[in-house]
Amino acid sequence: MKFSERLFQKVSDIWEKTHQHPFVVGMGKGDLPVESFIRYMKQDYVFLIDYSKLFAFGTVKARDIETMAAFAKLLHETLHGEMDLHRQYAERFGITNEQLEETKPTPINLAYTRYMLNVAQNGSLEELISALLPCMWSYWEIGKVLARDYQGASSHYLYGEWVTMYSSDEFGSLAEWLINLLDQLTEGKPEWELTILEEHFLTTSRFEYMFWDMVYQGGEWPV
Ligand SMILES: Cc1ncc(CN)c(N)n1
């Protein structure tokens, strides 16, 4: 069994629960309250600023030029592709780029990015990939589920662009590249090392679920 298959099995319940979360279902059905989506957009924008840095760490930790270039491409795609989507949504809602950048991360957002940045700085390349992979892979899964199971989700006047981007082959190929890279890098690795990687993957899959729940519930600092 490939290591990525083992990881997928490990978190399949969590990812399934994510697909059933009212925020995600609301985007599929198109009845998610717009205020919830705006909260998500703003929180996700500051999340993506830190998330981009993980790809920069990937470039530093890569062991060959091809992998360095691929991480640099991912960094570029996040800053100029994925974050453009957020900037375009913000414009529609009358939110400036400055306002987006000034968003204060909620406790869960902060805990999630700090966890990944800590792994990126102190862990191996394999650990870094295992920690960030649920971000790319679970979004691709959500995009595909919404595009497949909810009629008209890809053309919805508000959430259609989100569904289209994350279900796209282009986004999927970036996720696949990372999945394949992790499979290659983990071939022949001892069980104790794989267990550490699996734990990172599980933790950030949990954070992904908590992020959806946080933007649905509010999730602000209590004091
Ligand atoms: C919280 C979160 N996780 C993942 C993704 C997909 N890059 C995202 N935009 N936001």
UniProtKB/TrEMBL annotation:
Key word Oxidoreductase present: no
Protein's pathway: Cofactor biosynthesis; thiamine diphosphate biosynthesis
Keyword Membrane appears in the UniProt entry: no
GO cellular component: cytosol
EC nos: 3.5.99.2
Class of the enzyme per the UniProt entry, highest EC level: hydrolase
Classification via InterPro entries: Haem_Oase-like_multi-hlx, Thiaminase-2/PQQC, Thiaminase_II, Thiamine_Salvage_TenA
Single GO MF annotation: thiaminase activity
Family: Belongs to the TenA family.
UniProt function note: Catalyzes an amino-pyrimidine hydrolysis reaction at the C5' of the pyrimidine moiety of thiamine compounds, a reaction that is part of a thiamine salvage pathway.
Subunit field text: Homotetramer.
Record-given protein name: Aminopyrimidine aminohydrolase
